[in-house]
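Dear colleague,

Thank you for sharing your sequence with our group. We've completed the structure prediction you requested, and as agreed, I am returning the results in plain text so they can be pasted directly into your records. Please verify that the sequence below matches your submission; if there's any discrepancy, let me know and we will rerun it promptly.
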Amino acid sequence: MENRFRKALKSGKLLLGTHVNLIDHRICEMLGLIGFDYLWIDMEHVSTDFKVMETNLIAAKATGTPCMVRVTWNDIPSIKRVIEAGPDAIVVPMTNSVEDVQRAIDTCIYPPEGKRGYGPNRAVQYGLSDMQDYINHGSKEMLRFVQIEDVHAVEVIEEMAKIPYLDGFIIGPMDLSASVGELGYGFMAPKTNALIDTAIKKAHEAGKPIGFSTGTDNPEELEHWIKKGVDFISASTDMWSVMKGARSLLSDLNKIAQKYPRI
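Please find the predicted structure tokens below.
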């Protein structure tokens, strides 16, 4: 089956996405209907478990919107079940060394090239897909991204990029800033910005796309990151979109109510 996210990334256009942290599958469906290029389903920092993640994938598929899933950690239990569910892409966090990246990719690729255990479910349409074709080709269509979240990871991006079946990188600016003592400094933190520039340059020189993940919806900050040349950006979260919309509604209601005092 064609990987919609891979196809979109190859088009060369800047891809725009947002993070899904809430567990109701209708959130994923609503965001998919809005028109984002892709959705990022998070499992690392929120309460999303396997069942919720799989249901979110199904909801997003109903809208035709590709999904990437960030797994909880770089280990077999965290990665195996997610890739069996058939996301368009996975994101492995905290890959700070060449060895970390190799371990992540090995978990995603069948032997003899990797160490993935066999047992796909939704990824093979519950058995309707040709199994041999999936083993040889379909299983490799899923995009495999690793996160750059430490100064040491930036230093070895060139070596990481040489690992077969690694499809690209995603910058995690908050943890990256923490690794150089700038956590909380904001998007103008000088050392962090210099590292991000270096990471983007190195990734592109190695022929790999590089994305960016940020919780903000501030237009000035988003423009700051986009103009650096990232290939895709995941911005804000469903939680913040709800909070922002609700706060705006309450503000409007209060302004109207003040015109018509009861006491």
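Summary note from our side: The first helix runs from residue 4 to 10.

Kind regards,
the structure core
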